[in-house]
Predict the structure.
Amino acid sequence: MPKSRRDKVIALTQTKKKDREWKGGLIEQIREALEQYQSVFVFRCANLRNNAFKELKATLADSSRFFMGSNKVMQVALGKGPEDEQRDGLHQLAEHVRGHAGMVFTNLTKEDVESAMAKYEVSDYARTGTVARETIVVEKGPVHGPHGGLMEHTLEPTLRKNGMPTKLNRGVIELLADHALCKEGEHISPQGAILLRLFGHELATFKMDLLCGWHDGGDFEVYECAEDVDGDDSMDGDDDRFKDDGISSSMMLPTELMHVESGPAVAKLARGKDEGSQGARGPARKAKKPAKGGRGR
């Protein structure tokens, strides 16, 4: 049989959607942890680094359990109000589960948890969209690398590709004008993130701060770090983390496809665009084949 020419939508992602079953499992795990541990703390996470976080969880595996996921699901597991809370006072804890936050169920004291978290604070290179905490400028002249010596001449095309006005002068990379890699208080661009890594500037720090705690018996307390979060609009979880990536809107997905699930609907929209681009004359007609035998002699 001939191959079908119908438009087929193929999903390239292998990530499974978190369905109702996954959400129900998370709720059950959180409520089971309430039975096993004496205290619950809500923490804020800045510049998450998976390796350091995994090491922290492994260190406290015997006495604690961490949860990070859907904030709304975790709020439901604790109870959003006095009428549906799982323990007395837990709904106050749920109010602080927002933004880049998580929960740790533990038998340790607040001081022990903070001490363990402080041991795993690590500096790392900032990623695209991170707010720069200082201004980094490379001065005009020969370019020096993070080791202090002259930067390898093979990196000159990479520097030029990422916005630095450079040239090779007898095997030495020369910067034609002062160039700012990032500016304090502004979001780091994709090019800036690459250049900061090449020059060895680590502007991001992975750290975790406790916001509030609940103890068996209904005791609830709010800590100083929670006041900083209340005044930070970026912790509401509704901000777009891709808005400062430097990619133009023309390269983004069309607005009519933003909220359409993959399937026949996407194929239908795609076909509509193709049909609209054929012009007023419609699809091109096939050339007529010459009649057999041709003209007479």
User: Anything to note?
Assistant: The CA atoms of residues 92 and 220 lie 8 Å apart. The first helix runs from residue 20 to 36.
